[in-house]
Design brief:
This protein has helices at 8-11, 64-75, 119-129, 134-137, 208-219, 389-408, 412-415, and strands at 41-42, 52-54, 79-84, 89-99, 144-146, 152-155, 158-167, 170-182, 185-192, 227-240, 256-267, 274-280, 286-291, 298-306, 309-314, 331-332, 340-341, 348-352, 359-360, 367-368, 418-424, 431-432, 436-440. The chain is an alpha+beta fold.
């Protein structure tokens, strides 16, 4: 059977059964036109998405230390791994298991007087094991701080040992190292959001009071009744390093940098928002000013085909020109002004051969991609030449497929961005080429 561009549901039929509820309702409405809301923005470089390749596909480009350490790991059993090209290190590995603590998967026994393993036991074992894989992960045990909230044993046979990453004595926001132990054996380990090995955080040139003055100047001054949730903490953020000389947009192993910032969070009487300001501690530039409340505010929706029938559905995790992405229900916190989306989402990116996609919001912030009845390059008359039912359908179903996967397993490709090429001007079957999914326009089939 020939696969049409709008027929991903034929490949993944379970997706048509999925109807996820919207996000939990917030207690207040967003301040669309508040004085502070008009100042909201975020620098695009604050998000440095991983670019994932299997270790086999990138073997020839790996550093000798990473390649050698991975070869040693493979010699211990059946293991697979992926590499984050932004760091050049392995970011995820899973395999046949390495004995960690007594369990059904091994012959280890508890120490005398020990009834069952504790988190402190797992912490000690994980730190002792780390030097065996540190060259491929690019981390040092001394830079890790156990996060007891994220770590623990959700079931009798399963352990998560989850670490924050420290640099210059500060926690790097979102950077982590994790070990997963099943039936006593280590079966998965990896990292997330690590800086590149050459990344250095510039020294702070502004003290807290100077950074606070930058924020005050930006918002037109603080008021006596303003209350601070965070009255000034120094933090480290990873940021995207861009270099157009390289096909990936950055040099292999040098795609994620470090920025030292001052952070302030405050509330203002008469304004429902909780406002976060982030100031570059070296340059004094404001990198972000935004309301960090979660609202049910505005929604991105579009016509999606289920076995040939168009139904309006949320556009989950799609990009927003105002910064960030919608949630699973297509909902986002609309503040003010015009917001656009191009279906270049957090987990799925659409490239439509019919043209570019750019849908603008209505006055309430809703992104209404609409429904088109025709085939191929037919659009609703808005959202650009690429706002076809093929684009919306693939965006929705591919996102739902990855979302289901994240609910069951942990794999780097489930959190990385997948490109879906649609409306290819030819007539043959859909295919996967190892990095993208590809769908053709309607036609008479293969020759």
């Amino acid at each position: 059977m020939k696969f049409r561009t709008d027929r991903l549901a034929m490949i993944l039929p379970l997706l048509g059964l999925l109807a996820l509820p919207g996000a939990a309702a917030a207690q207040v409405a967003a301040e669309y036109n508040s004085e502070l809301g008009t100042l909201s923005f975020a620098e695009g470089g604050l998000v440095a998405r991983p670019l994932i390749e299997s270790v086999e596909d990138i073997q020839g480009s790996l550093s000798p230390a990473v390649a050698s350490n991975w070869a040693e790991m493979r010699a211990r059993g059946e293991w697979t791994a992926s590499v984050d090209k932004r760091t050049g290190f392995v970011d995820f590995a899973e395999g046949s298991g390495i004995s960690f603590v007594p369990g059904r998967g091994n012959d280890l026994v508890l120490a005398a007087g020990e009834k069952k393993p504790t988190l402190d036991t797992l912490d000690g074992i994980s730190r002792a094991f780390l030097p065996r894989v540190a060259p491929m992960l690019g981390v040092d045990a001394k830079s890790l701080k156990l996060d007891r909230d994220r770590s623990g044993s959700p079931s009798e046979y399963l352990w998560y040992v989850d670490y924050d990453l420290l640099h210059d004595g500060l926690t790097i926001d979102g950077a982590r190292v994790i070990f997963r132990v099943n039936h006593g054996n280590l079966i998965q380990f990896g990292t997330e959001n690590l800086p590149s090995p050459r990344a250095k955080a510039p020294a702070a040139k502004l003290d807290r009071n100077q950074a606070l003055s930058v924020v005050a100047d930006y918002i037109g001054g603080f008021r006596a009744a303003d209350s601070f949730v965070d009255n000034g903490t120094q933090r480290l953020l990873t940021t995207a390093i861009n270099d157009s000389r390289f096909n990936d947009g950055f040099e292999l192993g040098n795609g994620r940098g470090l920025t030292r910032i001052w952070q302030f969070v405050f509330r203002r009487d008469g304004d429902n928002g909780t406002w976060r300001a982030r100031v570059d501690a070296a340059s004094g530039k404001i990198l972000e000013f935004r309301d960090i409340n979660d609202y049910v505010s505005a929604q991105a929706t579009g016509g999606v085909k289920f076995l040939g029938t168009p139904i309006v559905r949320p556009m989950p995790f799609t990009n927003l020109s105002s910064g960030g992405f919608t949630n699973s229900a297509g909902v986002y916190n609309y503040i003010s002004g015009s917001v656009t989306s191009s279906l270049n989402g957090q987990y799925v990116k659409i490239t439509d051969n019919c043209g570019a996609i750019s849908q603008a919001s209505d006055v309430a912030g809703n992104l209404l991609f609409g429904t088109s009845a025709g085939t191929d390059c037919t659009t609703p008359g808005n959202g650009g030449a690429g706002n076809t039912h093929s684009a919306r359908t693939q965006f929705y179903h591919a996102n739902r497929a990855k979302e289901i996967g994240r609910g069951w397993i942990t794999r780097p490709w489930l959190t990385a961005q997948l490109t879906a090429n649609v409306n290819i001007n030819n007539t043959c079957n859909a295919f996967w080429n190892g990095s993208t999914i590809n769908f053709y326009r309607s036609g008479g089939g293969c020759g």
